[in-house]
Amino acid sequence: MTARPEGTGVGGSASPSAASTVGRTAAGTARRPVVGSDAPHESAHLHVSGTATYVDDLPELQGTLHAALGLSPVAHGRLLAIDLALLRSQPGVVAVITGADISGANDCGPIVHDDPILACERVGEDGHCSGTLRHVGQPVFAVVATTRDAARRAAALAPKALRFDTLPAVLTALEGHARRQYVVPPMHLARGDAHAALAQAPHRWQGTWSLGGQEQFYLEGQISLAIPQEDGGMLLHCSTQHPSEMQQVVAHALHRDANQVQVVCRRMGGGFGGKESQSALFACVAAVAAARLGRPVKLRPDRDDDMLITGRRHGFEFRWDVGHDDQGRILGVEVDLIANAGHSADLSPPVMTRALCHFDNTYWLPDVDLHGYCARTNTQSNTAFRGFGGPQGAFAAEVILDGIARRLGLDPLAVRRANFYGTESNNLTPYGQTVEDNVIGALVDQLVERSGYSARRAEVAAFNATSPVLRRGIALMPLKFGISFNVGHFNQAGALVHIYTDGTLLVNHGGTEMGQGLNTKVAQVVAHELGIKLGRVRVTATDTQKVANTSATAASTGTDLNGKAAQDAARQLRERLAAFAAAHHGGSASEVVFANDQVAVNGEHIAFEELVMQAYLARVQLWSDGFYATPGLHWDREHLKGKPFYYFAYGAAVAEVVVDTLTGEHRLLRADVLHDVGQSINPALDIGQIEGAFIQGMGWLTMEELWWQPDDGSRNAGKLMTHAPSTYKIPTANDCPAQFDVRLFDNRNVADAIHRSKAVGEPPMLLPFAVFLAIRDAVSSAGGHRIDPPLRAPATPEAVLDALDAVRSADA
Amino acid sequence: MSQRPIRFIHRGEIVSVQGLAPTTSVLSWLREHRHFTGTKEGCNEGDCGACAVVVGELDAQGALQLQPVNACIQFLPTLDGKALLTVEDLQGTHPAQQAMVACHGSQCGFCTPGFVMTLAALHQRRTADGSGAPSRADLADELSGNLCRCTGYRPILEAGERMFDHAAPAIDTAPIIGQLQVLRDDPPLEIPCFHTPRSLDELAALRMDHRDALLLAGGTDIGLWVNKQLRDLGEVIYLGEVADLKRIGTADGWLEIGAGASLADAWDALARHWPMLREMGRRFASPPVRNAGTMGGNVANGSPIGDSAPVLMALGARIVLRRGAETREMPLDDFYTGYMRNRLEPGEFVQALRMPLPDAPARPAQVRAYKLSKRFDCDISGLAAAMWLQLDGPTVHEVSLAFGGMASTVRRATQAEAQVRGQPWTEATVRAAMAALDAEFQPLTDLRASASYRQRAARNLLYRFWLETRPDAPLAASAVSVWPMGATA
Q: Which end of chain B has fewer surrounding CB within 10 Å, N or C?
């Protein structure tokens, strides 16, 4: 197993700072540059010693109360009454909170205001109440008690305390689609005349495919701690990717001003999108209870409740009509993408937009007609999850291309290559953005060579020719992923950099740390600007009282945005210090060099902290703000046209699997990855993101099955039955393949992104498609590659055996 | 018996705890009562390992055994007389901690203390006994009870190898051993609603006096009743101090596993005599659950999807029951009477499981155990099968086919067995038996598998068994199983 950077762009000299005119950073001198180094995560030493603080680790203030949520026991119903007396009489219970206690808006929807915080909206003295129950697990009320255990025990009485009429439930995307029941109107992305292209294509066929959703399974569950402050203020410690949005929704719920609500997040124990919008419900309930009771209130749902309450990656159903030529080139394609949005809109609209904008993946599609439907169902409201619809959209194209290859008797890799975007022509995406940085051809060539794809393809065929039970499969998956928020105004960030008189720095920015190493990279950027060692820079908790109006840390943009903003702040400080140094020591400001913890000015070398002290005494401002807005983006939301992405990231993976044709079990034998992060700011962290996404995505596609009890009138009708790690299985160490060779592609971002790096959070989520496609390949071999396997995802043993049986019976 | 506090070693000292509910978990004691927050709660059901701590106790030889367990489902009184080590004990300098930093083994960091504790226990064990760094595959098995959602595990596995660059034990055990010896002299623990017998006779007497009491062994299931269903357990009899109940031994051609033997020890014993069962043991839950849970508990619990029962039934196990001074035994096949119901009488408990050891080589028996689940490690079976076969030349002399996940109890496929017994072990015979399986099992559809899959897979597993055991050109495990153990067997 190896994991090392490949090529000169990584770990070599950092890029020169193009915009720097006053004061320079001398990189590549004696000391190894900070940018491009394998600096460990800034909290690694805290993680391993158990001293990294998460919200639940904060010492509780005296008088802190604990909340627990009472959940809907039915998938769909009309709420009639709530037995408040029963709940209030339980030991330790201090209060029961319903929608009636929410002085502001009973809504936490991030885009559409269709997301009640608590389903019990109004309550009369007699206990009669109103509200709609929309899914099993929807929070209906909250119990606040002296201990978390007491709150949980009382809240668990919900089935007894609630009276309701049960209504028929819609549990699947296809059922919702059949009823034309959507959370937002359908979206259409079209270019050319797909219908004409289909009619004229030499080959034309139709297909369907089903792709399951995925639970984030952040190891630290949702949590909010609300602490009342003076003069109507409210402080929230919240595990969230979006402190500013938490500030807003809490202010709305409390009917207070934004400047009265402070949201702080030092770190999350994982987010993956699950704490972008859906931390809001917990923040709001804690804040409403704390405001009403005037005491600190903590809300930390048990894992099962967390999974029953919150949504996850959207499962998709696809239906397509595709036309292609003899080489497998797609000439025209029409696709329905039907997502299970759950009971409310949440982030489904932009998720669908990104799905539509990633159907093309690395392929030139001349005539295309895509329809996106966000079906409303009686399940948890689905939300952001690493990739944000992009993987789902791209995956549909891959399954179609695989099907084309089977029909033409070609190697799927040959069909993929035949469809690649060009560099000079055939390089316009269906949404009208020109692909200007296409490297997929060269990247795939390198990976094919390194992985020995062709020889191994032959070995796999030879193995399969003689193996009685086991079948092997191999596949290569290429990817392209667009970087930027599809919503233009989110592409902005702010930062603050303080230099203290001892020469140490404190950095604060709008991004949140969820393990991805954002703070480490931002610290590297700041240290680089001032030519100082990384140890001088400390990055602090995200806090809405420091940088205002921050964007979610999402869409892989954390380092791109906040790194640039921090660079801007640091650069201003450097320029200020350079001007001061030149004025104080002679020479010109443009010749002052910051390097190796020293400042070279007019032939003198001054220790950094010494110059800082001199500047302080001379009354130079030693802190600065910084700001960044991604340039050149435009987006027509109505027609889904424009330039939504600043640039694209690329990558490819080869996976080889073995499948048991008797049971449908499989195992990943080997994976080779080559991924484009531009010029890496931190290769070790980037490799960590790539490997982590690979295994996480593999889990999604092979074992992480979400299973709802059908609406069968049983006690659990409509309930998500895979609501804990005992029943919802994410990969373990044994699922990491013995041969796992992940390397970085030698590249430099053509866009002026931070140090010419590229975002890395989400794009590698597409790499493990190679695993699924390799399983398809193995299943396909059971029918002599004559039948396109109807393999759904996740490829559980059952799904694989179903596909094998279908292939065998079709081939019989 | 007079009451006394629960006493155990924590942070280098013997601590005394009194006045807490006996179902207080070690995790909540640490976090809520002592404010040691390094140990995290990820799932509260023993499936993620974020709360992994190390429990130390002296074995029969007086040597210190350190084992990771899940603090979230470990009740505090079960620590009595033992040592509790948490991430705070390692002070940031343990080789496991240093290697995790050097290998970039943490991202969000929430699972990290649990990994560190699992690694530290492994490091201590393998440096103390001189076995050194494990293989990558063994390391992955050791870590199968710890979930990480960020890294994809490669850097953690690398850290697990690199920590053995420090080849000497890193935890100073002498003071712990000294304190454990002091605790050995404590009288039995007796706190309200929590009985701690130390001998079989005491247990038998207590059981007669408290017939409605709950028998608690490892708590790997009962812990969830408390954490998830918020159940009050009432009177509890804890089995963990009954040394006789943990005994594993062979006599007169039988292997006897005491009901209180840990799953880890029990599966080791089974695999020693029937090496083909090693994979099943390895896939049973995870190391922390196997360290805490017992095979007797798994059998007595009687879940239709428990993985011990099919294997034991296929081996012809007998279950030994004790009531007062009397013991009786019966074939395990006869023990279950319906969904989660069995033949235990009031006041009776499971004392041991007895398996006939493999016969002389004259008529060798073949045994296989198969488990189908969505994940290789630590997953509850959608379907489990154990098959035992004795051939007389080309003819089946005796056969036993046991299935879990196919009915309301684990049970043998008697109709399929009848198709096989006395018949030539041919494809035609196995196909007839496969058809018989359809008739005798009508499995359910649930979150783990559909009825259709269970039926098809059960048939196919029987076919796999035939492929592996047919007299002519039997296939090696590596030809019929995708799992590495099969591949290397």
A: N
